[in-house]
């Protein structure tokens, strides 16, 4: 594919390269530059001379160096690769050498250029299409779709009966009346525990900390137990005691923590 | 067509083409458009009024119509298709506790006054609660009570019976039935249930009533 | 469509009436509408696809046209009348060359990863370029590629199709020629490792996965 063409039009090439250098900011990377250089060959990209292209590019880089223009690293990487490609293309293939042949590498570069150009053309064609808001238009006066929300209230006979039962039995269980008498607060329990833990050197059942007058009635005992348990957790957090429970539902035991 | 040579530059497009133009303009503009505006947008020599006439006839009976708004023209949805422009969502919601309790009291004690409802519920009944029940047509006004102040009473309606599947208000289950159905007991005071709980375990056991191994072996097979 | 007759209560309106409905719905909105959405808004038992077919034919050659946008449908003014709407024209920000190229690469190679875009362009894709396309809603994230690193892919959107007047990504200009010329192949540099080549090849396999005939109602009755 990549046949070696005789060196020709070297002067024109240099002139072109100079013109390009002025424009170097305008290029979208080395592949873009290569594509622009390839166009100066004025042939179909499929017939492009990759060797000549490599020379053009290297000439360009050389020119840039003479004019003290700093090229971005990827332009220099491309230059190094093209120099390598050029040597592969010029030297007879070495059968011992690994890797792709110069011709394969050249063919791929030609493919890349062709593909980039194809995408560039596709982009241009896309932008040239009839476009919404420029060539064709959507409805200018859209009508709003209204959302009508309807609420349907329901209740079942069971709801009704339960509500009535609830009203009729409300007096019996006073759901909102807090029973201060039979509730031990966390603060109360904490206060008690603080005073007592000094004596708890060995593992002791938490239940044994409950005050005597709170262990009779089940409701009172439960409240005291809950508060004492919560209070113990506070004390564990504070690093004052340790807590353990052998298994589910086993007695909860606490012990003073020294140090 | 006859004398093209006289003003070839300004020859107006055929009327059918002008109709297309008016159609596109009316479709795309954000506001209704007047004749002058149409003429200004269209090529020289066009007759927007004639084009509008054609267009109006074309859209006769269609889903969209050409309408005149004062001196302006616009395309609008045909009036009979307005329903397509709204989306109804029906939301089913449970009646609030206040409403259902009030309803229950009216049902069991009808005819009953607002003061009686409040006495039984132990709370003031908000205006909105009664209004809602009236609006639902489950409750209506009954006769005034022959007592000082002649307060209005509330009674349930046919719609109420209908909704709850009752043939008459006397079909409402009585307190005894409620108890038999476990409704009253289930709502029983904590003190009552506590005895039962206490009898089978100590305080600690009831502290963590559902403290069991959550990894149900049956779950394993289902996944 | 088959068993509408089973429920005479919900007998669908005649097709001509359904056509009016679809017309009204599509006229009323600037956004493309899907079949499911149409069906949801029309009475039970309607066949929006058939109605769309009728509508498309009715508007053929008119100033306003029925267009397909991916799986959606919309009414748009005929492109040859754009000159009438200079006042409606929206100035779109001019896209950079990088953005246009990136958009073309995504459109023609979708789903396509950032690395593939960079390989084709031979430069790093700046964050802003993709952001701009995402912001315009012409490009969105597709599925992750099932290859090492699971890179995200980019695909074009329905807004992209709508903007460029395409009925599907298969209608991209010159797509067939580019494919025939092998320019959409994920061809690998000859010195690249085989793994990379492997991961690329599924890019092609998944390109336009729904590349089947989705019976466009507009073509429906032409045969």
UniProtKB/TrEMBL annotation, chain A:
Protein name: Segregation and condensation protein A
From TrEMBL, chains B, C:
SUPFAM superfamilies documented for this protein: Winged helix' DNA-binding domain
GO BP of this protein: cell division; chromosome separation
Signal sequence range: none
InterPro entries the UniProt entry points to: ScpB_csome_segregation, WH-like_DNA-bd_sf, WH_DNA-bd_sf
Organism of provenance: Palleronia sediminis
NCBIfam families associated with the record: SMC-Scp complex subunit ScpB
Name of the molecule in the record: SMC-Scp complex subunit ScpB
Gene3D superfamilies membership: Winged helix-like DNA-binding domain superfamily/Winged helix DNA-binding domain (1.10.10.10)
Region (Disordered): 186-223
Lineage: Bacteria, Pseudomonadati, Pseudomonadota, Alphaproteobacteria, Rhodobacterales
Keywords: Cell cycle, Cell division, Chromosome partition, Cytoplasm
Top-rank taxon, per record: Bacteria
């Amino acid at each position: 594919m990549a046949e070696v063409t005789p060196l020709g039009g070297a002067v024109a090439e240099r002139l072109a390269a100079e013109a390009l250098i002025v424009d170097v900011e305008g290029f979208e990377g080395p592949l873009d530059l290569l594509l622009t250089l390839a166009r100066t060959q004025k042939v179909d990209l499929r017939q492009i001379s990759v060797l000549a292209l490599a020379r053009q590019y290297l000439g360009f880089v050389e020119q840039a160096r003479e004019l003290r223009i700093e090229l971005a690293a990827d332009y220099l990487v491309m230059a190094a690769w093209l120099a390598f490609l050029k040597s592969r293309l010029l030297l007879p293939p070495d059968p011992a050498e690994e890797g792709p042949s110069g011709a394969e590498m050249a063919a791929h570069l030609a493919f890349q250029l062709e593909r980039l150009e194809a995408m560039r053309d596709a982009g241009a064609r896309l932008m040239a299409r009839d476009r919404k808001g420029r060539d064709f238009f959507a409805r200018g006066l859209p009508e709003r779709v209204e959302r009508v929300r309807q609420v349907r209230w329901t209740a079942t006979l069971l709801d009704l009966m339960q509500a009535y039962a609830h009203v009729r039995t409300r007096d019996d269980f006073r759901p909102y009346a807090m029973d201060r008498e039979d509730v031990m607060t966390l603060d109360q329990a904490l206060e008690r525990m603080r005073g007592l833990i000094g004596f708890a050197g060995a593992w002791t059942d938490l239940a044994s900390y409950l005050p005597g007058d709170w262990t009779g009635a089940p409701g009172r005992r439960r409240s005291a137990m809950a508060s004492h348990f919560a209070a113990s957790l506070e004390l564990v957090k504070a690093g004052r005691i340790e807590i353990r429970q052998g298994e589910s539902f086993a007695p909860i035991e606490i012990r003073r923590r020294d140090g | 067509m006859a004398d093209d040579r006289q003003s070839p530059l300004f020859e107006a497009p055929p009327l059918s083409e002008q109709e297309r133009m008016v159609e596109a303009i009316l479709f795309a503009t954000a506001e209704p458009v007047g004749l002058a505006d149409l003429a200004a947008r269209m090529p020289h020599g066009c007759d927007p009024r004639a084009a509008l006439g054609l267009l109006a006839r074309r859209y006769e009976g269609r889903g969209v119509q050409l309408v005149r708004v004062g001196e302006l023209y616009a395309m609008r949805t045909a009036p009979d298709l307005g329903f397509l422009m709204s989306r109804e969502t029906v939301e089913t919601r449970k009646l609030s506790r206040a409403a259902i309790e009030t309803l229950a009291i009216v049902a069991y004690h009808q005819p009953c006054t607002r003061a009686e409802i409040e006495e039984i519920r132990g709370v003031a009944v908000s205006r909105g609660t009664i209004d809602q029940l009236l609006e639902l047509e489950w409750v209506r006004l009954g006769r005034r009570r022959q007592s000082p102040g002649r307060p209005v009473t509330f009674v349930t309606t046919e719609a109420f019976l209908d909704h709850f599947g009752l043939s008459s208000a006397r079909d409402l289950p009585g307190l005894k039935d409620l108890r038999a159905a476990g409704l009253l007991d289930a709502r029983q005071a904590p003190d009552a249930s506590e005895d039962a709980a206490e009898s089978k375990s100590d305080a600690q056991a009831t502290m963590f009533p559902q403290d069991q191994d959550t990894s149900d072996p049956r779950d394993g097979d289902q996944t």
